[in-house]
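Now for a sample.
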Amino acid sequence: MTSLRDEIRQFCNTYALRLNTDLGQHFLTDEEVLSTIVEAPNIQRTDTIVEIGPGIGVLTKELLARAGKVFAIELDERLIPILETYVKDDPKLEVVQGNALRVPLPDHPYKIVANIPYHITSPLLRHAFLESAVHPDCMTLLIQKEVAEKICDTNHAGILTILVGLFGTPEILIDVPPQAFLPPPKVDSAVLHIECHKEPLADAKTLQKVFSLTKIAFSQKRKMLSNTLGKLPGGEHLLETAGIDPTRRPETLQIQEWITLARSTKE
């Protein structure tokens, strides 16, 4: 029986496909990891799935077997006819050639399931949560393990921790070694599932204020808040009003404290 890895290798050889690792082209060849990814979002026949960077369609084929529609965004136009061949021109597949950070996401309910180029993790999360009129119901992403761990670390929060936490609950489902890919990347990976809240934890105006404040505070994250937010006009009063100790560092604040800070700012 041909393994998934051998199947992908043979398919790439047939089409003389040279992968562009600068674009993050590392094809998943591990069937256990693939199964974990497609089972996590509880895909229904009525679901629309957004896939980013489908490559030749290894994950796409599994999504098409479960979903009502797969909307795939591929930057590398060379791969699109190969993708359509691999999935046998499934009519449930719509492929758009373009940059996933600029392509509008659906205006109706959808789920994001993707093995994404790791360098777009942060901007993709911003695009889905902050720049899109409709937020995803959930996101299942194969990303760099270190980034996944940071997103889930609420005791040493970063901007991504706060961003994701405002919109959903993240969980690492499985660690993924480099040998699970063709070709192997230079870093360890992980499958991160984000089950999104029905609504963000704050209104749009408060969310924008949260990100303005976190951008300032985390620009010098080793400094106490008194040396960052405290230096803003009225900053000391802001921290006092929100009940935040000015000697704390930004990574120690919980999401609700950032929301309180945002709501304490003057209009």
